[in-house]
Amino acid sequence: MDIICYFANLKICGTEYSTNDKGARTLNRLPFSVDGYDFELVQDSAVFRTLERELIGTFIESTRLYVNNVEPEDTMVICQIARRIAYMLSLATDSQVRFYRWHAVNCDEGQRWSVNGVYNYFRPPLCTVETIYLKSFIEGGYATYKQLEEVRTLKVAIELFVTSDVLEQPVELRLANIFILLENLKHSYAKAHEYEYIKGAWFKDGKRTGFKQILIDMFDSVGMSPEVSGIIKLRNEIIHSGLSEMGGKEKYKIFSVCKELSGEYLFRLLGYQGKFYRHTTNGNQSKMLSLV
């Protein structure tokens, strides 16, 4: 049977055109393949033609995901794939993409869930127009995402990443959110790499290892070597007191650095190779990521 999955809060261009009854063409189709299935992501034409600024902060039923020739016993497999794709799209677009419904064509089977979340468009890590890279991320990173989803708590990590920018909130709350994300990434990295957690501290090869060193090791594992001293200093102030005497611009600059570093780390972790747009440059400059 043929299945349609419904996504919310996604606005991207496709790589192929669709044509309506009047002959108008829209670049809103994105075909891709994962886990042995051929999918096609189709953006709603009305949403496609609406300016991003008119949609930000709202819940929009935006996108359909089509997959054909599914065996009836595999419907839940398709739903699992759709949920993973939604999280990957959330990371790629920095918007709260939600999978909220599916139904089988020409029969009564289907299901709908209550979800929350809003559309956001602000310095997305991957280009939402030149989506050949987004397609490459899904096709190339899906298997790794599936493998690491639980052990690296990717759903939580991605939700923290997106939430830090999707809501209007003071910079201290943005920082707290992004610092919790770094803690989450550090914790799952340490557990996955045979660090031992004993009486409130991490140990590696019998030696106590602090937050800074684990963070350095974590970034190094994917080929990154950022300076983290300033991040850790502000993190300690925010986490322990909720405030900092640092000026607002300086705090936002560190938030932007953390946002970029955590995003780049997640994309590298998932094996992405391609253009990555930098949060610290207002999303105007990109760098090419490649495997270590």
Indicate the topology:
Elements: E1 3-8, E2 16-19, E3 25-34, E4 37-43, H1 45-48, E5 61-67, H2 75-93, E6 98-104, E7 110-112, H3 132-148, H4 154-166, H5 171-192, E8 196-198, E9 201-204, E10 207-209, H6 211-220, H7 229-241, H8 248-269, E11 274-277, E12 286-289
Antiparallel strand pairs: 1-5, 1-6, 2-3, 3-4, 4-5, 6-7, 8-9, 9-10, 11-12
Helix pairs in contact: 2-3, 2-4, 4-5, 5-6, 5-8
What does this structure look like?
This protein has about 290 residues and is α+β, with helices and mostly antiparallel strands. It has two domains: about 5-150, no CATH class; about 155-290, no CATH class. The chain has helices spanning about 45-50, 75-95, 130-150, 155-165, 170-190, 210-220, 230-240, 250-270, and strands spanning about 5-10, 15-20, 25-35, 35-45, 60-65, 100-105, 110, 195-200, 200-205, 205-210, 275, 285-290. A seven-stranded antiparallel sheet has the order 2-3-4-5-1-6-7. Helix 4 runs antiparallel to helix 5 and helix 5 packs across helix 6. The longest helix is centred in the middle third of the chain and has 22 residues, at about 170-190. The chain is globular and about 65 Å long. The mean pLDDT is about 95.
Round the Cα radius of gyration to an integer and report it.
20 Å
The overall average pLDDT, rounded, is 94
Biggest sheet, spatial arrangement of strands? 2-3-4-5-1-6-7
Oligomeric state as shown:
single chain
**N-to-C terminal Cα separation, in Å?**
41 Å
DSSP E strands, number = 12
Count of domain modules: 2
Contiguous runs where pLDDT drops below 50 for at least 5 residues = none
Task: Quote the beta fraction.
Answer: 15-25%
Helix content: 40-55%
What is the structural class?
alpha+beta
Give me the strand/helix succession.
Answer: EEEEHEHEEHHHEEEHHHEE
Major sheet attributes: 7 strands, antiparallel
Tally of contiguous helical segments: 8
